[in-house]
Write a structure and sequence with these properties.
The chain is α+β, with helices and mostly antiparallel strands. The protein has five helices and twelve strands. The chain starts with 24 loop residues before the first helix and ends in a 13-residue tail after the last strand.
């Protein structure tokens, strides 16, 4: 059994990257320059995830278990706890996996992704879908001289603020359907970032989930807790425990705003990422 490193329970650092709008050619060159320096770091993070985070055998995630049902459950849990409801939060879905260049190229075509940049052994594809959020794909070959050799794949869908649950799920279903069609096993995760109605939001959600607290991290402004609940399908190994829910509350020392962040099976991204206020 491959296990996550112990510190993954806190958060997986996120590379802040500017969205590339494909119908504005004049803007592309400057933005691509900004993307490339961050790309190597992001791919290395992806390699870390794939190497250490995807269990082998019949564990959920190894065969590309769907995130749809868990996302529906998380939406239901968060809706009464977030200011202006779950739709006001920022939602992101991520798939980490391995594939070869041929399958990834076909995946990009079927998802209507456009190549933003490409260097030897690596490629970036992105599209801004009006009303559907931003879908981005990163791929790096293990052996650039052998196109049949598998490489590391990261696919991230960032929903729009105010986007409905149905709209988010439609895109997730389309992506996962295409991953299955290309025989790409992508270990999925879903995260949300919003403003809590009350400081006890994480405690209230954990109670709804009937979740068992397994790990906790706390500093001056942030409390992060990792749980296991039988109400969710996806799970990963973290240290000695199977976990499938991570919740964090971050109190902004300047504004007093309580940011509420959560993820299945873990949060991916930075707690400090803007949540729309």
């Amino acid at each position: 059994m491959v296990k996550y490193p112990a510190d993954i329970r806190l958060f997986i650092p996120n590379i802040e990257m500017e969205a590339v709008i494909m119908n504005q050619p004049a803007m592309q060159k400057g933005r691509i320059k900004g993307i490339l320096p961050a790309l190597f770091v992001l791919i290395m993070a992806a390699t870390w995830l794939v190497s250490y985070g995807i269990p082998e055998g019949d564990e959920p995630g190894a065969s590309g278990l769907s995130i749809e049902q868990d996302m529906k459950t998380l939406w239901q849990w968060t809706d009464p706890l977030l200011l202006e409801g779950a739709a006001a939060a920022g939602w992101s879905i991520r798939w980490d996996g391995k594939s070869n260049l041929e399958a990834v190229s076909e995946l990009s075509r079927e998802l209507s992704l456009h190549a933003v940049s490409r260097a030897e052994g690596e490629a970036v594809h992105a599209i801004l879908q009006t009303g559907k959020g931003l879908l981005q794909l990163w791929f790096q070959q293990t052996d650039a001289m052998n196109p049949d050799e598998s490489g590391e794949l990261v696919l991230i869908y960032e929903g729009l603020e105010g986007q409905s649950e149905a709209s988010l799920l439609d895109t997730v279903a389309a992506v996962e359907s295409e991953l299955r069609r290309q025989h790409i096993a992508g270990a999925p995760s879903v995260s949300f970032r919003g403003i809590a109605k009350a400081p006890a939001a994480a405690e209230q959600l954990a109670e709804q989930a009937q979740a068992e607290l397994l790990e906790q991290y706390e500093d001056a402004n942030t409390i992060s807790q990792t749980f296991y609940t039988h109400h969710l399908l996806n799970k990963v190994q973290s240290g000695d425990h199977k976990v499938n829910l991570q919740l964090a509350v971050h109190s902004d020392p300047d504004t007093g705003v309580i940011r509420f962040i959560g993820g299945i099976p873990l949060i991916t991204g930075d707690y400090r990422k803007d949540t729309g206020s």
